[in-house]
Backbone:
């Protein structure tokens, strides 16, 4: 039996078994009672409390770092997708310019010696689409 000192409320001396004493010293969740039923327990030492606080802070910072890494990864993926779309659009524009340069109508795919006259007479709304307006292709 281990003498654990007086009860914190009624000041009566308490004796508890050695096994209970060792278990209560290691785990602050274990309570023991004085002869009058007052609950007692050993709290964590200041060092243990500061270690717990540091551990929680470390875990919180680790979580924030993982969230930032995820955000960076998502932004890189989004940037890469946007760049792929940009390159694809440039390729389509280049293809159309080359075809027009060789006299092929971009609307009806026919070849004309005087493409400008054909575009003005048959596809007049197509030129407006180059300025940002919606084209109406005949």
Residues:
């Amino acid at each position: 039996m281990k003498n654990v000192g007086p009860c914190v409320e009624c000041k009566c001396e308490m004796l508890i078994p050695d096994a209970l004493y060792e278990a209560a010293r290691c785990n602050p969740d274990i309570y023991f009672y004085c002869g009058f039923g007052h609950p007692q327990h050993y709290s964590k030492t200041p060092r243990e409390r500061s270690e717990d606080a540091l551990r929680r802070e470390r875990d919180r910072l680790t979580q924030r770092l993982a969230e930032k890494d995820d955000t960076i990864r998502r932004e890189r993926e989004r940037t890469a997708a946007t760049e792929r779309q940009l390159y694809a659009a440039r390729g389509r524009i280049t293809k159309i310019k080359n075809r027009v340069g060789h006299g092929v109508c971009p609307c009806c795919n026919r070849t004309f010696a005087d493409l400008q006259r054909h575009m003005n007479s048959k596809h007049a709304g197509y030129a407006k689409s180059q300025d940002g307006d919606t084209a109406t292709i005949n």
Observations:
- Residues 1-43 form one domain.
- The beta strands are 2-6, 13-16, 32-33, 39-40.
- The first helix runs from residue 18 to 26.
